Amino acid sequence: MFARVCSKALKSQRPLLCRFKSAQCITKFEEIPGPEGYELQIEMAQSDPLTAFDKAYREYDSQVIKFLGPISQTEEVILFDANDIRMVYAKEGKFPHGASSFNNANQEFFEKKRKESGTKYTGAMSKSGTAWREARNVLGPGLMTDAAHAYLDLINTAAIQSVDMVEAYSEQLGTWTKRSAYDMFTSIALGDNPESTDPNSSHELASLVECGDNALSLSVMLSMWPPEMHTPNAYENMVEQYETIFSVTRSYLEKKQNADGFIDLPNCWFKDLREVQGLPMEEIILLMPQFLAAGIGTTEGVIDWNILNLVNNVEKQDILYEELKSELDGSPFRKSANLPYLKACIRESHRLTPPGNAMTMRTQHQDFVTESGFEIPAGTVMWMAPYQVNRDPRYVQNSDKYEPERFLSAAVNVRKKDTTCPYSKQLDHGISKHPFSMGARGCLGRRAAELEIQALMVQLFSRYRVTANPPNQSFKRKQMTLSIPDPMPKVKLTKR
C-alpha cells in the first residue's frame, strides 16, 4: 500500500517532493509560499494551533512555509520535513535559542525574582547563552539521563495511588490526569506524594495542582500565541499563580530543613540538588514554580491523548491488556519489562493526536539552506512541525486511524525495505518520535515524563477496561501548556 500511495504522489508535480530532485533545486526565502499578513495567526486563534498548521500544510503543499509569526511579529517559517528539522538541531551550536527562551513573560517575571533574591539559577532555563548552559548542567543530570530511573519507585507509588482513586473521576477524567501528573512529578521532586487525586487529601501541597499548569499556560499564551488568544489580566494572573507556588513551597521546605540546612526528605530530585549539587535552599524554593509548571501541563497533555485514543479503540486496549498481563502480571511498570505494544500505543497516539502544533522553535545564528533546499536567513524563528507529514494520507496508510501495529517491529522493518517513498520512513525518524522535543534544549524532564506516562498507563489499563459512556462523545482541542482534548470523555471503568 505504501508503494501505491507513494508512487502516485511521486508522479505529481508537488513541490513537497523537491528534496528528491537534484541539489540545485533551491528556493529563495522571498519565494517560500505562505499566507499573507496575520491570516495564520488568526487561524491559530479561531481554531487551534495544530488545526491551523494542518490547514496551511494542505493549502501550500510545501516542506517549508512562511508566515507573519506571533513570536517575532516578523516573517517566521514552519519546517514540516523531519530531515530539515534534524539539520537545524545539528547546526544549533552550544547555545541555541529554543521555545523556553522565547517565553518573554516567564523571563520578565523570573528575572525580577532573581534580582530580588540574589540567586543564580532562577529563570535561567528561560534564557540563552552561558547562564542557560550552566543551569542545565547543574539541573539536568537527575532527570535527563537514565539516572531518572532512580525515581521509578516514587513514580510507581504515585501512579498506583492515582489509579486507586480513578473511579471517583469517571465523569472528570481530565481532572484526574492533571492531578495524576502533578502527584507523580511532585513525588520525583520532593519524594512526597500529595495525593491530590484523593478528594479528601489534606496534604498542604495538594492545593498547588492547578497553579503550575495555569501559570505556564498563561506564560505560553502571552509569549507565543496571537494577541487574540490572550485572556484579560493574563500576566497578573500568571504572577499570582507563581507567587502562590513560592509561598506554599517555602512553607513546606522550611519545615523539612534540618539543623544542618539539609532537606529531611527521601531520596528525590530536590534532595539531590541540595546535597549533591550544593544548591542553597532559596535557590531550590525559587526553582520549584518553574519545574512544577513545566512538569504538569506537558505530561498531562500526552497522557490525555493516550487515554482518549485507547478509550475510543477498545479492541486495541484489550491487546494492550493482554501484553501487560503476560509481562507484568499485576506488578508495577519496570524498566526491564518487554512492552512493545505499550510503546507502540504511545508512539501512535503521538502521531495521530500530537499535543502541540510543533515540537519546539529554533533560530540559527547564520544563514543556511535546509536539506530540502529552502534558504533561511539568520535569526528567523523556525517552528519544527513534523506532525503533518505523519498524518498525510498520501504517505501513510490509514493515516486517520489509530493503529499501534504500524510501530511494531514487523511494520517498521517493512518500511525500512521500501525504497519507493522516502516519506513513509519519516514515521520512524527520530525527530518524529518524541513529544518532549530533542536537541540541546529538549525538555529537561523528558526521561522522567516518559516513565510517568508508562507507569500510569500500566496501572490504569492493567486494572480497568475503560470505555466511553455514552459512546461517540465529541471533543475539541483546547490550548493549554500543550493542547488537551476538551472535554475528556465520560467513561465506564470495569475492573479486570
Give an overview in words.
The protein is 47% helix and 8% strand. The chain has 496 residues and is α+β, with helices and mostly antiparallel strands. The chain folds into 2 domains: 159 residues, no CATH class; 285 residues, Cytochrome P450 (Cytochrome p450, Orthogonal Bundle). The chain has a 4-stranded mixed beta sheet with strand order 1-2-6-3. It has a two-stranded antiparallel sheet with strand order 4-5. A hairpin with a 3-residue loop joins strand 8 and strand 9. Helix 2 packs across helix 3 and helix 9 crosses helix 18. The longest helix has 31 residues. The chain starts with a helix and ends with a strand. The N terminus is likely disordered.
Can you give keywords for this protein?
496 residues; alpha+beta; Cytochrome p450; 2 domains; 4-stranded mixed sheet; two-stranded antiparallel ribbon; 18 helices; 10 strands
CATH C-level class of the largest domain is Mainly Alpha
Whole-Å distance between the termini?
37 Å
CATH level-four homologous superfamily name of the largest domain? Cytochrome P450
CATH architecture of the largest domain: Orthogonal Bundle
Q: How do the helices and strands follow one another from N- to C-terminus? A: HHHEEHHHHHHHHHHHHEEEEHHHEEEE
> What's the CATH topology label of the largest domain?
Cytochrome p450
What Rg is obtained from the alpha carbons, in whole angstroms? 23 Å
Largest sheet, strands/sense/barrel: 4 strands, mixed
Strands ordered across the widest β-sheet: 1-2-6-3
